[in-house]
Amino acid sequence: MHPPHDIGISSSAYAELLLPAALARIAAVAPAAEIRSFGLHTLLSQRNRRAALEAGLPCSVHGPFGYTGLGDPSTAARLEALDEHRRHLEAAAEIGATLYLVHPDWRPDPGPRDSAVVSALERSFDALRELQSETGVPIVVENMPGAGCSHLTAPGDLDLRGLGFALDVGHASISGTLDAFLAAPPPEWRHVHLHSNAGLGDLDDPHLPVGAGVIDAAAVLAAARAVGASIVLELNDADDVAASLAYLRGRGLIA
Questions:
Q1: 3-state helix, strand, coil in the chain (%, to 5)
Q2: pTM to 2 decimals?
């Protein structure tokens, strides 16, 4: 018996479409969606929130992101990032989102671990945990690409303070930590971003279709399904979605 088709699709593959059209495209090929809440798909738009409800798909929501954000040592900048997440999280709650995803810190050039950034992230996670309780929407924190480019690239890097963990397998591949995440899954693991790349050091983070690059999709899916993590293809265009689904079906990884 083939595994079920349990893989959702990110609206990032249809970023040029209005959200109703993007969700219709997703509904034709997948049982769930992830809405990237920025650009044409921002859930701060009442029209987009209505479209998400009318689509009838289970939806996770990817919050907006920049560079330092939640890890900014500047209290004013950090609180500004938190307030932006609060507004998007409230919108996610309105559409009944299954979870809400945030990025921690990220910088384009690797550097040493910074205790001020770690402290700022932990304060932000504490605040997000309160918002999680208020809205009822689980919040997950995503690992980032490139060792030294973030304070969350490997297992055990950060205390998530009661939030969940989202494994971006492409980011972990670039950081050289995917095998470690799969061998000893964090207890907070709730969600997966599935895409591919050339592996360690591929800092362009190309989000290649599954089947291209070096990602062992079978190993990822087996580990994710074992812990009950939700799975989303996070790709840049519709052709890559089609190629990824064909690859997964062809190898019996989805029905």
A1: 40, 15, 45
A2: 0.97
Q: How many residues does the chain have?
A: 255
What is the Cα–Cα distance from 164 to 72, expressed in whole angstroms?
Answer: 21
Mean per-residue pLDDT, 3-23? 96
Angle at the Cα of 205 from the Cα atoms of 190 and 27, rounded to 5 degrees: 55
Cα gap 159→126, rounded to integer Å = 10
Task: For each of the domains in the chain, give its residue range(s) and CATH number, in order of start.
Answer: 7-104+114-250 (3.20.20.150)
pLDDT band for position 208 (cuts 50, 70, 90): very high
Q: What is the pLDDT of residues 18-33, one digit of tens each?
A: 999 999 999 999 999 9
**Rounded to the nearest 5°, which phi and psi values hold at 198?**
-85, 0
- Structure token pair of residue 160: 């998530």
Q: What are phi and psi of 3, to 5 degrees?
A: -60, 155
The secondary structure element, H or E, covering residue 189 is strand 189-194
How far apart are the C-alpha atoms of 233 and 13, rounded to whole Å? 9
Give the closest residue to 105 by CA, choosing from 143, 131, 162: 143
Q: Quick one: 9 exposed, middle or buried, by C-beta within 10 A (0-12, 13-18, 19+)?
A: buried
pLDDT of residue 122: 98
140 forms bridges with which residues in the sheet? 101, 164
Question: From CA 220, how far away is CA 187, in angstroms rounded?
Answer: 16
Scan for tokens 């709650």, then name that residue: 93
Joined together, the tokens standing for residue 170 give 């492409």
228-243 as b/e, with b when 16 or more CB fall inside 10 Å?
Answer: ebbbbbbbbebebbeb
